Amino acid sequence: MSARPLWLYSQNRKSVRFIFNQRGPTYTAVDFGQGRTWFHGSVGEDPNYAGRQFQIRLDSLTGPVLGTITVMNTGGFDTYTDQSVPIAPTAGKHDVYLVALGSSPGVANLDFFTFS
What we know:
Blueprint: E1 6-10, E2 13-17, E3 26-31, E4 36-45, E5 53-58, E6 65-70, E7 76-90, E8 93-100, E9 109-115
Antiparallel strand pairs: 1-2, 2-9, 3-8, 4-7, 4-9, 5-6, 5-8
């Protein structure tokens, strides 16, 4: 199974929408440097979808789970707020997979993210 992103535009910015259970975007060779312990994302979430989750995984769709974020209502898919979650301490370069959980056709829109 491969991760497949669907690109959407909102507020003149490119965002990612999670489209299927167990799928989401992949980011290659993300440099965690000497170590990171937090995921920070700018997330857009419709009230009807609030509470859905996605996982941050390393190196494959079935790789180690760094953390799981439960997405809060932001007022709409095109209304972004920063949401953070602690992750397992991670260092070096890794591929990062954002994996949508559940069977709904979508979880959230993601404008950008970073690790700290």
